[in-house]
Amino acid sequence: MKTFTVISFFAVLTWGVNPSVLRQFETVTPALAINEYDFRPVDVCWESLNCSIDQIEAMSITDRLEFMKYMGTRRLGPLKCNEQFGALEGVLTFFIRKDLATRGTWLSIVNAAAVEAVQRGAAISLGLSKETGDNPGTMKWVDYFTQRKAGRLTSRAGHDLAWAAAEQAAIDHGIRRADTAPGIPKPSGRILRWQQFTRIYRTTMQYRRTILWLIRTAFSFSTPSIAVTAEAFMDWVTDVTDATSSGFLADIAWNLSIIGLSSGEDPAADSEAIMKIATEFWEAFQQKDQPWADANECRATARHDVE
Ligand SMILES: *[C@@H]1O[C@H](CO)[C@@H](O)[C@H](O)[C@H]1NC(C)=O
Ligand SMILES: *[C@@H]1O[C@H](CO)[C@@H](O)[C@H](O)[C@H]1NC(C)=O
């Protein structure tokens, strides 16, 4: 039923997406001159890459975002992974916008586990430590980093599968910790549903090949363009190097997490909810400001000049 949910979601979602809209999104350049940026670690554990989950949980979300950027630009280069955590940065930016995951909350612990796993995985891969923090995500990231360093995981299907599996393992660990942490208030239904929505995202990444194949098969006779669009759309939303797409998705998921899915027991109700989600998503997608559309035009013009 999970696969059904994901496939219907993407089928409906891509129904009306116009490829030219997607091309505009592709030109978003988050090219910050961050290499020269002067990072101010809030804790010495940043540099030794040995922050515990509690130390990370004690950091504000702004500091965690800074920590992720620090790791990306200063530490993950040798592992060929400096751009691999845009999706996490996008989610952290979303938390800042919505003032979510503040210290001592359920969501903050879940997020801290995700950051911890990346950091500990990096430390082990760089030969700085052997500490996993008992976080099952850590060794999955180690495997991921090892493969990336060896020049593997270059196809989207293999890459997305490994990335999403590592991230999901860390998140699941975070959820177990948050559920059992003493004195932490239970999350609201809306937060739980938002978290569930992000799982759909990672499931989509893991079943990428199957989903694309099913969509292609389903639409190849009636409307082949939908299959092409589906792939372009999936490429964009699940691009882990792009903080804009994950931040945008997180926002929409937040708006939509008012609606619940039945977690599989009621496909008819789920289809209805998915349809509503897709319709709203599409409307939000179209209404979104597209300041880069102008930049895109400039570039097209410049190219003409050269020719
Ligand atoms: C983290 O590493 C630093 C520097 O190597 C060390 O001083 C510190 O004790 C370590 N912290 C933990 C919790 O292992
Ligand atoms: C989410 O809802 C708010 C309030 O209704 C709205 O202003 C905002 O544009 C919505 N965001 C997205 C991404 O749809």
What does the radius of gyration come to?
20 Å
Structural class label: mainly alpha
Q: Please give the domain count.
A: 2
Rounded mean pLDDT is 80
Overall geometry: globular
Signal peptide: 1-16
Keywords: Signal
Which short descriptors sum up this protein?
307 residues; mainly alpha; 2 domains; 15 helices; disordered C terminus; binds 2-acetamido-2-deoxy-beta-D-glucopyranose; signal
Give an overview in words.
The protein is mostly helical and 307 residues long. The protein folds into two domains: 1-23 and 212-307, no CATH class; 45-186, no CATH class. It contains 15 helices and no strands. It is globular and about 60 Å long. The protein starts with a helix and ends with a helix. The model is unreliable at 15-32 and 289-307 (pLDDT under 50). Residues 251-252, 255, 284 line the site of one 2-acetamido-2-deoxy-beta-D-glucopyranose.
List the topology elements.
Layout: H1 2-15, H2 19-26, H3 45-48, H4 53-57, H5 61-75, H6 86-98, H7 106-125, H8 136-149, H9 156-180, H10 189-206, H11 208-219, H12 224-237, H13 243-256, H14 267-287, H15 292-306
Helix pairs in contact: 1-10, 1-12, 1-14, 2-12, 5-6, 5-7, 6-13, 7-8, 7-9, 8-9, 9-10, 10-13, 11-12
This protein binds 2-acetamido-2-deoxy-beta-D-glucopyranose (2 copies).
One 2-acetamido-2-deoxy-beta-D-glucopyranose (NAG) binds next to helix 3.
